[in-house]
Amino acid sequence: QVQLVESGGGLVQAGGSLRLSCAASGRAFRSASMGWFRQATGKEREFVAAISWTGINTVYTDSVKGRFTISRDNAKNTVYLQMNSLEPEDAAVYYCAADVNLGAITRDSKFQYAYEYWGQGTQVTVSS
C-alpha cells in the first residue's frame, strides 16, 4: 500500500516557477516508478512526466520538455516536479502516481492504467 500526498501548488505568474512535492508512505515507494499527471478544467487527465525507481531514467511529455524536471529522493520518500517558465496552459490540478509493480520506465509509463496509487492532487494556477 502506498499513500501519496502532493503539495507545492499555488498561483504564479507566467514565466515563474513552482516545485511540486509528492510525499509517499510505505516501503513500496522506493521500488516504484512514479509519475506526474495533470488535469485542466474541462479536459482529460494527461501525462506530464515519469521517473524510474532509481531516479536515473525519466520521460516527459513534449510540451514540458526543457521546462519541467522530475526527480526523487528515496531517503525522503518524496518525488518532485520542478516547473520553470510556466505558461497559462500549464494551469491544472497536478497528481502524482505510483506504479509499484514496475520500477522501470516503459511505454506504459505515459498511461494512467500503469499506476495503482494516486494522490489527491494540488492546484497550479498560472496568470498571464
What is this structure's SSE topology?
Layout: E1 3-7, E2 10-13, E3 18-25, E4 33-39, E5 46-51, E6 58-60, E7 68-73, E8 78-83, E9 92-99, E10 117-118, E11 122-127
Parallel strand pairs: 2-11
Antiparallel strand pairs: 1-3, 3-8, 4-5, 4-9, 5-6, 7-8, 9-10, 9-11
The biggest beta sheet reads: 7 strands, mixed
Dominant shape: globular
Mean pLDDT figure: 96
Strand content of the residues, in percent? over 45%
- The parts where pLDDT drops under 50 for at least 5 residues are none
SSE order: EEEEEEEEEEE
- Work out the helicity level: under 10%
Q: How far is it from the N-terminal to the C-terminal residue, by CA?
A: 40 Å
How many beta strands in the DSSP annotation? 11
Molecular structure report:
With 128 residues, the chain is mainly β. It is 0% helix and 48% strand. It contains no helices and 11 strands. Strands 2, 4, 5, 6, 9, 10 and 11 form a 7-stranded mixed beta sheet that branches. The protein is globular and about 40 Å long.
